[in-house]
Every structure is written in structure tokens, then in C-alpha cells.
DNA sequence: CGTGCCGTAGTACCCCGGTACTACCCGCCC
DNA sequence: GGGCGGGTAGTACCGGGGTACTACGGCACG
């Protein structure tokens, strides 16, 4: 039995969901909420397995409510519903920690299957959205994660030189690199010079860019 | 009627797929292939709506075959099937241009629904994979796409200074910036100095890192 | 054994980058 | 009018970065 909290600002919409979910034995609507604040409170109180969350609501919207419910860590999983397939909503919802994203025009069996999947720990995305999501994903995935060949310039570096390049990418000066690697600054300069030459960079700045483009340094990683 | 090309190195597996797909009126298996090379050739020859592609095959694998079929641009959509939910396969398949990714242990109706969706231009992902994909996606999505506040240091920059910062992020020297912006190098230096001061960077290298971390420059964007 | 690659280290030289400070023009607003 | 922020521009100074070249110990490989 899967317990569900229905969140939508329109009473009629909530009624529809309740009718549908109560018509099958496997789901049980244990509560309703008309806006984000109420949703967060009821989620904490009722501990539903799944929260069926509308995005557009007056007051606190579904995204923020999702963020808080997920942050609360009560094991409730959030399935976000929206009328429009606006990209910002999808992105924001996923970053907020939603387990799924479906369109309101989904067929009843799709919705039920979605709830089942989410309750089961899986995730669901409306097919119409999946396509664009995959497109973006393919664009975002770091180059080295696929089957493409490694940049020959990178491959030409020795292990030491690669370490140096990473250090350059972190923004360290030659002096800092020397200190942290316990080397003389002369040695660092030699290494840096060879790195620049091998990757075809005219200065360390181009090397920093190269390092970022080739995912040698993590963003926001100091 | 959806035409399908079945690609798998195991004859029995192909037989199973053919039985299933031919048992419903909406799909029609118009060909089979036992490895990547044959798949590419038959896809070009038969122009199927959907290619049901196994990943692991002797010789050319399903990923490379997918890449080539998609690159051929014959409107054939590729639905990748695998026994294992290995991340590398998923990434590689999506980058190769696959329209979907399902596990072989999917129930028959799931497979049929997947083929239907793919033929329809949508995309599908096995629920078990969707979860991890969303996790990664949330991690990859540029920070500014959600509801988080913009870095106050960025907000303190004037429009001109932001342009300068982007230019720094591209690796341009002061001289190059001066030339492209039609400014004197002195002016550029003045701007750069103010930018460094405002974002708290000790030198332009830290500024480059800042620009990348705040997504002001696109990777691989010269 | 010699040859080459790698990592280490040094000297010498020059230039770009960054700082400090000043200066002028323009548009806006009190 | 006067003040102010933003954009432009200049001079002077200096330190770090990059280049060129040399050098040597260790280690592998033919």
C-alpha cells in the first residue's frame, strides 16, 4: 500500500486525483494540501510515501516545497506535476530533489505507474520531456565519459606533468606548486614550460582553460 | 505501422524479440543484424523507424553502431538495450545519439511502450536508470538554472566589467582585449584591475577560474 | 654498455600583468 | 550648479611568468 499526499491549489484537481488513486487498491490518499506551506507541514506530519506536487501554486510554489520536503529527509518522495513542460521547472524541480516529473495530461495508468515507480525508489520522467532532457544531458556529460578518444595532447603528458597541469588549473602560482610538491621553483618552471609546449598553450592561462575544458579540475573545487 | 530492425549477437534473443514484436499489429520486424557492422549496413538499406540495439556485441559494439546510424541521418531512432545498467554504457549511448535506453529484463509491455514512444519521437529511459540519471543531471545542471541567488560578487560588476571578465575567461591578453573592444591597453588594465578587486581574485588566472565556476564561459568555446 | 626519457635544478633575460595614482568626459540626479 | 558613477586613458614601477639553455642522477631497454 502506497500512501500519497496530494498537493494542488485547485480543489477540483485534488478531487480528481483522489478519485483516481482511491479507485485502485495499491494507493491510498492520506492527505491533501492547497499550497506549499501546507504541503511541507502535512508531509512532516503524515509521512506519505509519495507527494504528488503541483508546480504552480500561490504562495510557496511546488519547487520550494519540494526542496524543503526532500531536505527534511522523511523518506517522502516527490512526484512533480505540471501543465506546461517548461524547462526551468524541470531543472529546478530536479535540483530540488524531485523523484519524477510528469505532465498533468498524462493518462491515468501513466500516473499510477509513475507513483508506483517513485514509491519503489525509481524515478520517472514524462516521455515528452525525456527527449529534451537526454539532449541536454548528452551536451552536459563530460567528454571523457563516452567512448571518444582522449585528447592526444593530454596523452603526451607524463604523470608528473599531468599533476603540474592540474595544479596550474587550480590557479596555483609556480611558487605555490613548488611548496606543495616540495620542489624548487626552477623545477616547477621546467615542468610548466614542458606542459605548455605539449598542450600548445602560450601561457598558463590557456593551460587553465585547457584543464577546465578537459575536466581535469572540478568546478567550485577551490 | 512501426518498422523495426533487431540487432543482437544471440540468435535466440533476436527470435524472442521478433516473436514479441510480430505478435502485435503495430510493429513489424523488417530485419535482423548480429553485430554492429551489419546493423549499420542494414539500417542504411532498410531505413527502419526504430533500431533495437544490443550494447554488447563482438566486433563493432552497439554504441559505435548507434553513433554511425544516427550520424547517417536516415531518421532511424535507436533504442538501446542492455543487460547491465552500467553507467558508462548509458552515457556513451546517449552521447552517441540514442533515443532511449532500456534493460533487457523489461516487461514485454514496457518494451512495446518504449518502441512506441521512440517511434513517436519521444525518448525513454528505464525507470531504474532514470533515478541515477536525474541525480547526475541535477549535479551537472548549471547552478544559475535553479532558484539559487546569483553570486553577489558577480552582481557587483558593471556591464562593461562583466564583458571584460568574460574576455579574461576566454584567455585573451590585455592587448587582445584592447584590440577586440577597440580600447587602449591602459583602459583594459583599469577594467581588469577593478574586476579582480571586485571578485576578490589576486590575478587574472583566478578570474578565469571564477568565470568557469560561474558559467560565464562555455567549455570548448575557444 | 650506451642511449634516451624523466625528474630534478640552476642561470640569465625579457615582457606581460598588476598596482598606484591621476585625469577627463559624459549622463544622471539632487 | 555640483556631485557621482561609469567608461576611458595615461605614467611609473616591479614582480612573477615564460623562454632558452645547460646539467645531472636514476632507470629502462636494446
Automatic annotation (TrEMBL), chains A, B:
SMART domains: HTH_LUXR, REC. One of its GO terms (molecular function) is DNA binding. Keywords: DNA-binding, Phosphoprotein, Transcription, Transcription regulation. It comes from the Bacteria. Residues 3-119 form the Response regulatory domain. GO terms for biological process: phosphorelay signal transduction system; regulation of DNA-templated transcription. The modification 4-aspartylphosphate is found at residue 54. It holds the Pfam family Response_reg. This is DNA-binding response regulator. InterPro entries: CheY-like_superfamily, NreC/VraR/RcsB-like_REC, Sig_transdc_resp-reg_C-effctor, Sig_transdc_resp-reg_receiver, Tscrpt_reg_LuxR_C, WalR-like. Residues 150-215 form the HTH luxR-type domain. The keyword Coiled coil does not apply.
Amino acid at each position: 500500500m502506497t500512501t500519497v499526499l496530494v498537493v494542488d491549489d485547485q480543489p477540483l484537481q485534488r478531487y480528481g486525483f483522489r478519485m483516481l488513486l482511491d479507485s485502485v487498491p495499491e494507493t491510498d490518499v492520506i492527505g491533501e494540501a492547497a499550497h506549499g506551506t501546507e504541503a511541507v507541514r502535512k508531509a512532516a506530519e503524515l509521512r506519505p510515501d509519495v507527494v504528488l506536487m503541483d508546480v504552480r501554486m500561490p504562495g510557496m510554489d511546488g519547487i520550494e516545497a519540494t526542496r524543503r520536503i526532500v531536505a527534511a529527509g522523511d523518506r517522502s518522495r516527490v512526484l512533480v506535476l505540471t501543465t506546461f513542460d517548461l524547462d526551468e521547472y524541470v531543472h529546478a524541480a530536479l535540483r530540488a530533489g524531485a523523484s519524477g516529473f510528469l505532465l498533468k495530461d498524462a493518462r491515468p495508468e501513466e500516473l499510477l505507474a509513475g507513483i508506483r515507480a517513485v514509491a519503489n525508489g525509481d524515478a520517472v520522467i514524462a516521455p515528452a520531456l525525456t527527449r529534451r532532457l537526454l539532449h541536454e544531458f548528452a551536451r552536459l556529460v563530460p567528454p571523457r565519459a563516452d567512448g571518444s578518444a582522449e585528447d592526444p595532447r593530454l596523452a603526451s603528458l607524463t604523470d608528473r606533468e599531468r599533476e603540474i597541469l592540474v595544479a596550474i588549473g587550480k590557479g596555483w602560482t609556480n611558487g605555490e606548486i613548488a611548496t606543495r610538491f616540495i620542489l624548487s621553483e626552477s623545477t616547477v618552471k621546467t615542468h610548466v614550460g614542458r606542459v605548455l609546449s605539449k598542450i600548445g598553450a602560450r601561457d598558463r592561462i590557456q593551460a587553465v582553460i585547457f584543464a577546465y575544458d578537459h575536466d581535469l579540475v572540478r568546478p567550485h573545487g577551490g
